Amino acid sequence: MIKKIALIGNQNCGKTTLFNALTGSSQHVGNFPGVTVEQKTGFIKKHKDELELIDLPGIYSLSPYTSEEIVSIRYLLEEKPCLIINIIDATNMERNLYLTTQLLELNIPMILVLNMMDEVIVSGNSIDIDGLKERLEMDVVPISASKNEGIEDVITAIEKNLDQSSHHIDICHGVVHKAIHSISHIVEQSAQSLHLPLRYCVTKIIEGDEDMFDKLHIDQGDRHIIEHILEKMEEEAGTDREAALVDMRYSFIEDVCHHTVFIESETKEQIRSEKIDRLLTHKFLGIPIFILIMLFIFYLTFSLIGAPLQDLMDSLIGQFSNWIIHLLEVNDVAYWLRSLVGDGILAGVGSVLSFLPVIVILFFFLSMLEDSGYMARVAFVMDKALRKIGLSGRSFVPMLIGFGCSVPAIMATRTLSSDRDRKMTIILTPFMSCSAKLPIYGMIIAAFFPHKAAIVMLTIYCIGILLAIISAILLKNTVFIGEPVPFVLELPAYRIPTLKNVYLNVLDKAKDFIHKAFTIIFMASIVIWFLQSFSFTFDFVSDSSQSILAAIGSFVSPIFAPLGFNDWRASTALMTGITAKESVVSTLTVLTQSSSTAAFNQALAGIFTPLSAFAFLVFTVLYMPCVAAFAATRRELHSWIQAILTVLFQTGMAYLVAFLIYQIGHLFI
To answer: Where, in this chain's numbering, is GTP bound (predicted)?
Structure first.
């Protein structure tokens, strides 16, 4: 039988890094809250097909306020894993141990893993591991997950504790102790019948969890008795019931830390972080510094490093394509098949693959920023600005993920505790420029703005962000009237990014990009070739303007005439872009039948002017996301109508902005 082990801990404690080390899985590791939205699974390397490890979302407590906490609690109570691995940040013991005290209430065998012990030791601090084991009555394993130190010890502890009986130590004392034991007598039978941990049930009752009252079928008579007990507890404690429960837990934690944790000074990482934060989180300089950093990254990606590598990739793809076409010609393959392979598949897929170096370089730099801890600071700096438009800084995290892909970004809104904030963020996130649009930017920039790549890129990103701000203000004062929830964010210490984490993240993006190229783009290229090569009577046409696709595109193109691009090929590319944004590039490549980059750029000059090309670029940034993102939107909003209204709003805003850019620009150019 497969034995399930739950891995749980606070955000930014190295949980996913440990998961990767134990399973060898290529999970994305981030250094900002919200990166782990859903549980991930993998088998422990030395026990393949026997011990399944479940990476639960990073949380601070078992109070079900956010979707992450709900996912974790539901799994622990319903799936009943045979062991819990509770990983904590050894540089911040008191805060991390709060979750530990709650996990102790679940009566599940548990081991405690102290991560970042290397930082504790280097700073001259120490932790009495044996003393901690004795007081918590469980195995405690010191590790450094990022350096792969102590991983074997964790596996040994897992093997030792797998067949242990349920684990529980009594940490309650004082007036809360009396209340807990009094209520336990009332609900014990109901909790046992539902196979729920008694102590967990009682603490939920003290916290006023109505779902727990209903689940245990507590009648009005017992409710009155429980209320009397809690009122008596509040009177004796001199505080409200929830605060009394928290105080009891922290009293236990303080006693444990007093005898086992010896702090001489802050860690070097904490001291260094405080110095850096004086500049990077400065009230006035924080946002300008972020913009300058992104401008520098765009310059490296699209000019200094990316452009030569893209040219090299394009040259290699061109040579490969010519070789394949020559091979088909030598073997006297039918013309239509040569056209399908050369003008359809190779042109469509190759045009997208040529942008792979740009994708890899951009995500390399973004992963470095993310893994260093800087992105959490950006969320902190952005909180004040976002609050003015009706959102909290926590909404910045899904939006930031949106620069990679809208699908996980929309799913990441589950970390928002407010339904209002969550829905607003889902609507606004697609305005962030996802990586699938990078080939479109590269295409337009290479053809029309080759010497202003970084400036154009920054402008495009800023337009998306600006429209998100304007839309948020509009929604805040109409559909989503109200205030955002308070934003609480832990700023992790700055750490040097690990090459392994950065490599795994970049590899994941590259694999996803290549997978799209050989699946969605491949199929789209075949369909586009067919539609532009045949008429409605299924005659093979030499002039694509006589094709089925031309007829469809010509029917739609007048809609885009006020935006400056009424060529049927442009409107057709936008329609195929709904399947995947990269399809815009492959479609235009197939339709222009370009054999080289120079020929393609020349063909684009016949479709767009520089002004209409920029308007086209803006429209592609802002109009409805791909089908996969739409499906994620529908799933998270739980409504087809709301999802459709969302994409109509996004496309309407895209049309309006592109219209204004072209019409106003046309007055001056």
So the answer is: 9-16, 34-38, 55-58, 115-118
